[in-house]
Write a structure and sequence with these properties.
By secondary structure, the chain is mostly beta strands. The chain has two domains: 104 residues, Jelly Rolls; 73 residues, Jelly Rolls (Sandwich). The chain is built from no helices and 18 strands. Strand 2 and strand 3 form a beta hairpin.
């Protein structure tokens, strides 16, 4: 498992100036195109989102009052509950509105036909399936990850690839208030 702390990840500004992205992982690492990618985005103002043709996306609110995502003729959705994922096609023209000011989201993207993804809020032990990749992002509380027993708190987490060894990959809560997001990335069938 590969640890991360969002606050130590390099933030890259969006081309339209509406936010910044902190990349957790883009797999395969160093490749021109990704099979799957996880990042944390700070959305600073209303505006368009970039399209990602051939990609399925899942956004999950991490902090702030929320973001309204609109794609004409497809959906108009207010994400205002921390930890509630929303999946949509990256092919769609999309705009964001911030009814309560800036917010932070987890953005998971998978190349359609190559991978599928499921994001859920968890409060109990997570053991990734062999052959699956993914990310565990701590929302609150204390967690322990992997065979080395790495301790994590809010804004920290781990990611793994399908080729990482399965033994010892369980991630477990250590406090009664523990909550996390688990993004399971599976090979497409």
């Amino acid at each position: 498992m590969h640890p991360f702390d969002v606050e130590t990840l390099t933030a890259g500004r969006w081309r339209n100036g509406g936010g910044a992205t902190r990349e957790i992982v883009s797999w395969p690492v160093g490749a021109e195109g990704f099979a799957w990618r996880a990042s944390v985005a700070d959305i600073d103002r209303d505006g368009p989102f970039s399209a990602f043709p051939g990609v399925d996306r899942t956004l999950t609110l991490l902090a702030g009052d929320g973001v309204r995502l609109t794609s004409p003729g497809a959906f108009d959705r207010l994400l205002d509950q921390v930890g509630e994922p929303f999946g949509f096609s990256g092919d769609l023209a999309l705009s964001a509105e911030l009814p309560g000011g800036a917010c932070r989201v987890l953005n998971l993207m998978v190349r359609r036909g190559s991978r599928t993804a499921r994001v859920e809020r968890v409060t109990g032990t997570v053991t990734p399936a062999a052959g699956h990749a993914g990310v565990l992002y701590v929302l609150r509380g204390r967690w322990r990850a992997g065979a080395d027993g790495r301790l994590m708190t809010g804004g920290q987490g781990v990611w793994w690839d399908a080729d990482d060894e399965a033994p010892g990959r369980a991630v477990a809560p250590l406090s009664p208030d523990a909550a996390a997001l688990w993004a399971d990335v599976a090979p497409a069938r």
